[in-house]
Specification:
- The chain has helices at 9-24, 28-31, 116-127, 151-168, 183-198, 216-219, 235-249, 261-270, 275-282, 287-290, 298-308, 332-344, 358-375; strands spanning 40-45, 57-66, 72-81, 91-97, 131-135, 172-181, 203-210, 319-324, 349-354.
- It is of the alpha/beta class.
- It folds into two domains: 9-215 and 310-375, Alpha/Beta hydrolase fold, catalytic domain (Rossmann fold); 216-308.
- Strand 6, helix 5 and strand 7 form a beta-alpha-beta unit.
- The protein is globular.
């Protein structure tokens, strides 16, 4: 295994014992004390479908992090190193938070669900002299169902991916930034919000978030029977994933009571279909067709806020927010309001608008994003 050290046997044995004890109903004390977050359980070769052309070394890791209910959970992710010898102190790290792929195991990027646009984006970071570490998030390729847009667990998976990668890859520096687009922009903001507090053992420097679906907790409660078609790309698909994510993060919530039979069937199907499959499955079904009753009820509003709401204060490192003005997936006002709220709360935020739509804005922002990262290393 070139350039990646083997995992410490003690950590692997401890992880195996914890999993075995939990599965067998063994000692509660043992099951409650897994290895620290970021502990690597194992390494493996990446499938060729997950390779980046510009990476000299690429490997898949499985590691401990935190799940959506606050319990320890396992995640997977990829480590990509640039060609050539690392600089003194090691390659600086960009922890990549990926956009929406789906919630089923087959949708995990490290299993091969990597778009051409994502390859181009990450190859540019490698070419700029950064190593890339890329979590799949909890439940994508590991036990359970991925809690889509559950900010806290996604953000911690992003941070713990850096811990995991640096613990077994001597070529990596402990200095890192986070970058994410779309769902990943949401995750990046959560990773940024507690990057230094959650992982003081690392050297976190800043965040890049583009196409970020912020402020959804203000909009979702307007959903209900007859909700109009807003003309947004993939709205019903995203709604199905969010509702399923709420089932995972708040298992005591009677979310099924809010769904029509058609909505319940769609949400169930969302657990086995990646994004393009589910988009084809949705057809003409709208959000209003999914919902049997309004979502604007106190218990549900609280759960939605806990699951989705991006913090707008409490950041101790600079944040770069970018958004496409013609975005018809995550409308521009959502990103603009996020940046405005950060600025109002005296956070160190840089905001840039780009002419493209949702997918295009990630590549359009790339020169500014790399310059931002370099300025804060």
């Amino acid at each position: 295994m070139r350039r990646l050290r083997g995992v410490l046997p003690a950590a692997a044995v401890a992880s195996a014992l914890v999993v075995a004890a939990a599965a067998a109903g063994g000692s509660p004390a043992l099951a409650a004390a897994p290895p620290p977050h970021g502990t690597v359980i194992g390494t493996a070769a990446l499938p060729s479908a997950a390779h980046l052309p510009g990476a000299a070394t690429q490997r898949r890791l499985t590691y401990w992090t935190e799940g959506p209910t606050g319990r320890p959970a396992r995640s997977t992710g990829a480590v990509y190193l640039p060609p050539g010898p690392p600089p003194d102190g090691g390659w600086p790290v960009v922890s990549w938070a990926h956009g929406t792929t789906g919630v089923a195991d087959a949708c995990a990027p490290s299993a091969g669900d990597v778009s051409d646009a994502t390859r181009d984006y990450l190859d540019a970071w490698l070419g700029a002299g950064f190593a890339v570490v890329a979590t799949d998030y909890v439940g994508l390729g590991t036990e359970g169902v991925h809690a889509y847009l559950h900010g806290r667990s996604e953000g911690r998976a992003v941070v713990d991916m850096v811990r995991a990668a640096t613990s077994v890859t001597p070529e990596l520096a402990r200095t890192w930034v986070v970058a994410g687009h779309s769902q990943g922009g949401h995750a990046a903001m959560f990773a940024a919000h507690e990057g230094t507090r959650y992982a003081p053992d690392l050297d976190y420097r800043g965040a890049i978030a583009t196409g970020t679906p912020a402020n959804l907790e203000l909009l979702l409660p307007f959903g209900g029977p007859g909700f109009p078609n807003l003309g947004l790309n993939g709205l019903t698909v995203f709604a199905a994933y969010i509702v399923d994510g709420l089932r995972v993060s708040h298992p005591d919530l009677p979310i099924g009571d809010y769904l029509t039979p058609a909505g319940a069937a769609l949400v169930d199907d969302s657990t086995t279909m990646c994004f393009t499959q589910l988009r084809d499955r949705v057809g003409d079904v709208g959000v209003g067709d999914m919902l049997a009753r309004p979502l604007d009820e106190p218990r549900l509003r609280d759960a939605i806020r806990d699951h989705l709401a991006v913090p707008t204060s409490g950041y101790d490192r600079p944040v770069f927010v970018g958004h496409g003005v013609t975005d018809q997936t995550v409308p521009f006002p959502l990103g603009a309001k996020l940046a405005a709220d950060l600025a109002t709360n005296r956070q160190d935020v840089t905001f840039r608008a780009y002419p493209g739509a949702h997918g295009a804005s990630a590549m359009q922002s790339l020169p500014d994003a790399i310059a931002f990262a370099r300025a804060h290393l």
